[in-house]
Each structure stands twice: as C-alpha cells, then as structure tokens.
Amino acid sequence: MERERETAVLRELVRRTASGRAGLVVVKGPGGIGRTTLLRALAHEAQRRGLRVVETAGARVRTLRLGAPDAAGVDGQTLARVGRSRASVGQVRVLPASPAVVAPPHGPLLTYRQVVGSATATRPTLLSIDDADRADLESVRVLVRMLRARHDRPVLLALGWRDGEESAAPLEWVTRSMSEVVRPRPLTGAGIGTVVRRLTDGTVDAGFQADCLSATSGIPSLVTGLVAGMHELGLPLTSAGLTAAGEHDIPVFGERARRLLHGQPPAAVSAAQAVAVLGGGTLTTAGAGLARLETSAFARSLRRLEAVGLARGSGPEAWSLAHPAVRAAVLRSTPPRTLTDLHGRAARLLHDSGASADDIAEHLLGAPAVARTPWARTVLREAAGAAMLHGAAEHAVELLRSCVTPGHEDACDPALVAELGVAESRVDPEACIGHLTSVLDRLTDPDLRLPALSALVGALTRTGRTGHAAALLAAQDNGSTAGRARLQLLEADMLMAATDSLAACSSLLETVSLRLDLPGASPEERALLAGRAFLATSRTERVSQALAAVNRVLRVATPITDSPVTLAAAAATLTYADRPADAAHVYQQLLEGTDTVPDRLRSGLLALDGEAAQRLGRLDDALRTTAEALGSTPGPRFTHHQALAVAVRLHALLDRGDVDAAEVLACAVPPDVIDDAWQWNEFLGARGRLRLVLEDPGAAVADLTECGRRQDLWQRANPAVSPWWYWAGHAHLAVGDRAEAGRLATRAEELARASGLPVALGTALELLASASDEPGRLQLFADAESTLEHGGAPLVLARARVARGRALLRAGHTGEARTVLRLAWEESHTLGARALHDEAHGLLLSAGARPRRSAARRSGELTRSERQVARLAATGRTNLQIAEVLFVTRRTVEVHLTSVYRKLGLSGRKELRGALGRPRPAGDVLAKGGQEL
C-alpha cells in the first residue's frame, strides 16, 4: 500500500541483476515502517525473474531458500535453516540435508562466500539480510567489500536497516554506482483508507483517517494492528470508535506496539514507561526524573519513539504516548515490580513538585507500600475528601483503604478509620458498620463524631437494623440542648436513609412517629420536619399539615444555613402535594443559588427538578435537566440514582411525541439493573406508558400493575406521587377492562379529594369519565376540566380537554367539542407537546374545523428564546425594543429572528403572526363548514 515508488526501484534492481550486474540496496527506516514487507516483495520479484534467493535476518530464525522450493543448495547440499549462532548474534548455521553429514557452525562470511562463489556460477542471486543492523557489523562490512571486489558476479545484496542504529552505514563501504537507498514513507490518510478496505471490505471517512494517522503516525504495522483489532472487537471505524478503543484491550495492536517498543534501546523503553505512568502531557523534566535519564537523553528517546509512531509531542517540552491503546500496551508490558516502583517514585516526584492530591493519589494506589507512609496517608485523605465532595464515594473508599492495613485498624488513627467508615456508608454498609463501631468510642471531636454517627445510623437503617439504629439514637439524648439537636439531626438522617431500602422503610414506618408540630426553629428541627413531611405526604397522611410544616421550614431555611437534603425533602413534599411550581422554585435555589450542593446530590436534584418541570409542562427544561442528570452514563450502568431521571425523561419525550427516542432510552436499561428501589417504580410506570403508546396494552398493563404493586409496598399511596395509576387505567381500557380502570380512578379520586390534591383529583375524574359508560360521563369530563383549570398543570389540563372534546364529539356536541379542542390545540402547541397537539388536530378535523397544522408544528421546533423573540416581533416591536425587553443585544435578536424565519420557512416579519398560530377569540370559530381556526 502506497509503495509504488519503492517497489519500482526494487524491480529495476532485480532487472539489472538478472542481466548480470551486481548491486546493493539498503531498505532503511524506523521499526514498523514496512522494511520486512518490502524485502519480501523484493524476494518475490527475484523469484519471478528466476534469481536464486537467500534470505536471513540479524536477529530472527528464517528459512533459507535458494531459488526453487526444493532449495538445491551449495555444493549439492541443502541450506535448510538460517539462524543465530550461540556465539554471536547474526551468525548463521548451514545444516546439511543428510543426517549422516555433520557440518560445524559457520559465520555469514563463510556461508555467503560459498553462495557467491558457487551459487552465482549458474544463475544470478539475491542475498537478503533483514535487520542487518543487529547482525555482526564487521561480518556485514566484509561481505559488502567482497561484493565490491566481485562486482562481476550477478549478486544483489539487500540489507534491511533501522534508523538511528550504528552510525556506520553500508553506503560507506561501496561506491554509489552500486547502491540504492529505499526509505519507506508513513502511510497517508488515503493509505489508511486502503488498509481499511483490504482488511474489512468497508470504508471510512476523512475524520477517521486523520485521527488514525495522528494515533499511529502512519506506521503501517500500527495502522493495520489498530484497524484489525477494532474490527475484531466490533468497534466502529469512526473517530468516536477510535476514542473508545483506548478503553479496550486490543491484542493485535498491543502486541505490535510492544514489539516496536522493545526493539528500541533501553533508554527509549524507560522513557516510554515513564510517560505511560505519568500520563499525557508529561513534562521533559518530570519524565526524565522518573526514567532516571538526563533531560537530553529523555527527549532524544521520545523522538525515537515518535519516529516509530509510539509517542508525540503534546506541547513545548511535553510528551504523550500516541494513543491510549499504546499507553495500555506499554503498561501491560512493564514488569509488575518495575511498575510499582515507578508509581511510588512518581508519587513522590509529584508531591515534591507541588502537584494536586488527586494526581498524586492515583500513583499511590499503584504503590501499596508507599501509600502507608505518613506523607502519603495525608495526601490520600485529602484526595478522598475531594472525592466525597464530588459524589465519588467508591473512589474515596479505594483511596482510604490503601491507607489502612487490613486487620490492623485498631492500630490506626481513629479519625482515619472514621473517614473510611463514612465513605463506606453507601458503598459497603457492612464494612461501614464494622469500622465505625470499632472507633466510635474513641472519637471525642464533635466534628468527627457527628458525621460518623450519621453514617452509622444510615448504614444500620439501610441494612434493615432499624432497632439498632433507634437504640443508637436514644443513647445520644443526654438532656442538653446540643444533645437534643444532635438527636433530631440523626433521626432526620435515619428517615432519609430509609428511603434507600424497602425493608428499612417498611420497618421504620411501623415504629417511628411522623409528628409535624415542631416549630422548625433550628436547622436540626427543620431537617427532621422536612423528612417527616415527605414521608407523610407520600403516604397521603395529613397532607395539609405536611404542607404547613414545609411552609414553616421554607420560611426560614436557606441553602446557606440548612442542608441541601432538608430543602430537597421540602421541595419533594410540595411536588407530592400538587404544588410543582413552588417545588421548582426551591430546586432552582439549590441548583443555581449556591455551590454547596455535593455532586452526589446534584444528579438527584436535577431529576427532581426535571420532574417538577415535566408536571408544569416545561418539556424543554425537563429534557435539559434529565440529560444533565444522566450525563454520559450508559444504560447498563444505571443505578436507582439515575432511574428517576430516566422515568421523567421518558414522560417528557412521549409528551413531545418523540416515541423513537423514548423507545431507545427504555431499551437501554437492562432488566438486571432494576432492583427494589422506589425510583425504579417510576421507570416501570413510564415504560408502561411507552408500551401503551406503542400499542402493546398487554405489556403496558404488566409494567403498570407491577409498578402499582411496588408502590403499595413502599406505602407511596398518594396519587400525586406518580401518575402510574392514570396510565394503568388507560391500559386496562385498551384491553377492555373498564371495571379495573374505574376502580383505579375511584381510589385515586377518594385519596385526592380527601387530601386536597387538585391535579390528582382532576386527573382521576378524567379517568373515571373515560371508564364510565353512564350518561353522566360528560359532566365528569367537565368537572375534571374545571378542577384542573386552577391546578397549575397546563399539560394535564390540555390532556383532559382533548379527552372531553373527544367525548363531546362522540355525543354529537360538535360545536362545543370544537371550542374545547381548540383550547387544547393551542395549549399543547404552546407547551411543545406535539403528541397531544397532533391528537387535538385530528379531532378538530373530525369536528369540521381546519387548523393550521404545518405552522403550528414548525413553531414547536423553536427554542424558548426563539419563541420569545418571535412572539414579541409578531406584536410589531422593533429589534431594539425586543432587545430592551429581554435584556439582550440587538444582534442576538437578529440571530434569533433569522433562525425563526429559517425554521418556519418565512420570508419576513409580516408572516410571523399567522405562522405562530396566535389564539383568537372563541367567536372566530364558526359552527360549521370547516372554517379555519
């Protein structure tokens, strides 16, 4: 591939030798560039033209062939094998064909003198020595001089020579008239495309070609190894696939990278190991120190590695290995003891240079003996604290465990063991209980003791030992104000911990009091009050009292004075009490007003905020926050911490009408990750709704029934907690079970009416009307609509209006149906609820109306900022006036308007009013005749 120039030179040399002329060719280049491949091509061409071919190598065993396959040999013998003598690298042995004849080992000089003296007497000969730079150079020098002295013999001597080896080169030993130098060049992007076609029968784009070229420097052996390895692993041959390849073991590529590396001088191997350990962007001074090389020798070694595609400069005086897969290959080929030593020295080197604790800690994990020294423990504890703050409890546990010798915890600093126990509370509760129980009596500092107690109570609760946790709480009440406050905080922690375990929740709710009469004067009281209110509301117990308690909490609490968990529990109570707008305000305070929210809580807050936004019909916000909550976590790695975000996102996608995206998301969650956490209840409910949309009501009933069963186990009876019962009712209707749908609706109506939950009540009335075949069902629909008009849930209201409009249409009340459906059509369009908008559109057509479908659908594709600008422009405001209203620049307004015109296919501002489908008075809709809305 891309060797046309080189092969043309070799063919010409073979032609000259075949015509009776002697010659020398040196195929010169770095390792992996393709010298051996070219020498093989030369041998093939020589055989094709009838030359005898003798091949060997300076460091490998090769078959020695003399022309034809039967290899008729020198002086009637057969030269069967060529290899290394035990005495000298590069020497060969000549083995006779008959076992009765014993021949002593000979060096290449004697062997090739025989070949030149006898083999060429009958026909021209190619003598090919690969890796000649590794052979006995003096013998090669003598051989070349002999060739020069016998230039009348038709012999072509071909030498494979590595760049940067012994300075003495074969060209110094002969006249230029006899010699040629062939330097294979790295592959280009087009050459990489050819490699892909030959190895996979596929094609790649220019982006992959460029990225592969950057990762391999075009070295053919690395290119073919990488492409073949990715193809075997099923990784896509794309830029993204190439990035992902760094996370996989690619045996073919790794072996070639290791072979290239260990073909380099020891200094280059040490330099590569140092860069692999330190990672990308290794400074020359740091790398040289770790490799124990002079900086000039280190830089020179990296340049050698760069020439063979293993390394590259990543900035002034900074180096990286060419690709993560190269780094993995270097690390795997480094002996374990050497690797441990390198990590230990790297940690100390970074520590002395003032590097961050996180960077140092990664190396200490690879050097266990060093990790237990005093300075290393200090670094590891600092890094673990940062990991806990960012929600990486597993990593914090790994760091802290490296500080503690197993079985010798009693001899360790109790503060260190307490830190380990706190980190283990959510990762390994049993280990947490063991560690904290062993040191609790030795912790006298309140700043250490209180977090340890909180973690221990939480671990005991999550493992179902609520009685032990309660006894531990009681022991903390010493009658003092401080003791009472500590007890309240620990009880709040216990309540929240119980929400992570079904067994703990069931046990706890049977024993603890959910009194809601605390004044909420202190942060500890507010934490306990918010936790109790959350659980009471979930169970539909004293919802009005819970709301009053939460209001007392929120009147005083701030993100600075109170725990984020306290405020989040209060906001969740508001959501479950059908107050999603108030809840969204609290979530925004937490997410935007302070930086004190740990990362481990942030994803949960984002999911809860997305839930509030979805209930309010703010679908763009719901999709944005759930995307942030999920991040780049793949479906198989979802835990219950992501389950609520997945459920909310599914509902928002279905409301938007993006069924394909919802189906992809649901299918990304494998069944084995669904445990008994309550968050997975919500996922099952959302997936049941999806299956109903996909017209699989039987599967929908199964999912939604299981969701309801689990909700009962968790005592989440409040119909405002989750809409699972609403979709379950419609799934039962789809399979013809009106009775079960009516039972679900009646139960929800009773609970919602008793607890003052307007949205849940209106939704239950709508489901009850849909399940009823009584004459009063139209009144039920009207009651549902009127209840929801003041519920603060516009999307639910629009859905109820569509249901009422359908019922009116079926009952023959066409005019009234058009009025109701028109409102739903406009509302769903404003909310961007395309699925509901399409449903309303179809019903309006059935009612004889003619809505402006295309404009309405296109406007739903606008962003929130674009819609704001477009609506203001439609009222006649100038760009400057719009900019002043929205507090943006005039240029920003112009950009948004340009995007609006493009998306809606408009030529200018005059067409905006009609395209946006602005609501008109009800009197504009005529009774009959298909008039436009």
Question: Helical segment tally?
Answer: 46
Summed over residues and divided by their number, the pLDDT gives a mean of 83
Distance linking N and C termini? 67 Å
Strand order of the largest sheet: 2-5-6-1-7
Label the overall shape. globular
Low-confidence spans: 60-109, 854-860, 918-933
**Which percent bin holds the helix content?**
55-70%
Biggest beta sheet summary: 5 strands, parallel
Describe what you observe in this structure.
The relative contact order is 0.03. This protein is mostly helical and 933 residues long. Residues 60-109, 854-860 and 918-933 have low confidence and may be disordered. The protein has a 5-stranded parallel β-sheet, with helices on one face. It has a 3-stranded antiparallel β-sheet with strand order 8-10-9. The protein has a two-stranded antiparallel sheet with strand order 3-4. It has 46 helices and 10 strands.
